[in-house]
Amino acid sequence: MTQSKVPDDSPNQATTLAQPVIGGTEVTNVSGAAPASARMSWVAANRKLVLFGGSLAAVLGTVGALIALGQTAASTEAQAIRAVLVQQATVDAAMRGFLSAGGIDQNPDLNGVRAESDRRLTQYRDALAMVRKHEAVLQQQQSTLASLGPLSLGDGPGSALDRRVGVARSGLSQADQVLTAAVDQSTLERAVFETVLKEQQMLDAIKQQQYMQADRIDADADHALLAAEWRSHDKDVPPQTARLVGYVRLIIDSTDFLAIFTFRNQADPLAYWRSELNSAIGGYNTLSSDAAAAQNNDWNTTQYGPRVAAYGSAMAQIRDLGT
């Protein structure tokens, strides 16, 4: 079969060189069909548009989620500030109770002393837990809004809400310090009280010549005093309180040695520890007197009175700024 020829001057010459021959008839382009390269370019472009559209949707979704996060944080902050104001009376009562409280041993009944000690500690601890909860919430939400930048929609750093939160956190910080001191001092006071009771039991056992029993009670006294010794040198405890706790430690240790050397009938060490005991009791009596208690109250008023006032001022300022 003879293949048909195309004249040299045919306009299709360039294309027919690349076109196959089927059954002696050349295959020509169908009018209006896009070249393969053009179709591939269109598909690639379409894929890019799809990917771009998906990426844009993802970005918009992320932005929306961040805005929602900021709105949630702002709402949580506003609610926390309202809660701070609602619970101001509870916190203020605990702080003022601490500054005006007398010693727990004013009640001659032991059960009455313990009940009053428990009441105070519960009041202080509950108020402190409340304050710290508010501090944590406000700090977390303020940090969240700060990290969102413009997406916080006007509630970030420098905003009216941010200023209220700053004032609230400042006031809560003052209350935190006062109530921490209240818990520490009340815990120390209770530990000293319980240890002194154990000391009296040791002395009673020695009088009854129950020296081994006195030694066992000393272990209980030692354990009871630990809570006071852990706190005695803290900065939120009156300085002379550390000396008081030191005397209590010397008292129970001297009494224990008194029991041991009385049992062993060793005169010289017995005389030494009896002298130590009498000296420690004298120091304890001085630092547990009404005059010493008044000095401790004055110290607390000087240290924490201004902080109580600063807390009250912060709460008033929040109300002025609006909630």
Backbone structural class: mainly alpha
Radius of gyration: 41 Å
How many strands, what sense, and barrel or not for the largest sheet? 2 strands, antiparallel
Total DSSP E strands: 2
What's the arrangement of strands in the largest beta sheet?
Answer: 1-2
Strand content: under 5%
What is the CA–CA distance across the termini? 98 Å
Low-confidence blocks of residues: 1-7, 9-30, 56-71, 150-156
What portion of residues is helical? over 70%
Order of helices and strands: HEEHHHHHHHH
What does it look like?
- The chain is an all-alpha fold and 323 residues long.
- α4 packs antiparallel against α5 and α5 (160-207) runs antiparallel to α6.
- The radius of gyration is 41 Å and the shape is elongated.
- It has helices at 13-16, 36-86, 88-100, 110-148, 160-207, 211-231, 239-264, 267-287, 290-321; strands spanning 21-22, 25-26.
- The chain has nine helices and two strands, in the order αββαααααααα.
Briefly characterize the structure.
Helix content is 79%, strand content 1%.
SSE layout:
Elements lengths: L12 H4 L4 E2 L2 E2 L9 H51 L1 H13 L9 H39 L11 H48 L3 H21 L7 H26 L2 H21 L2 H32 L2
Antiparallel strand pairs: 1-2
Helix pairs in contact: 2-4, 2-5, 3-4, 3-5, 3-9, 4-5, 5-6, 5-7, 5-9, 6-7, 7-8
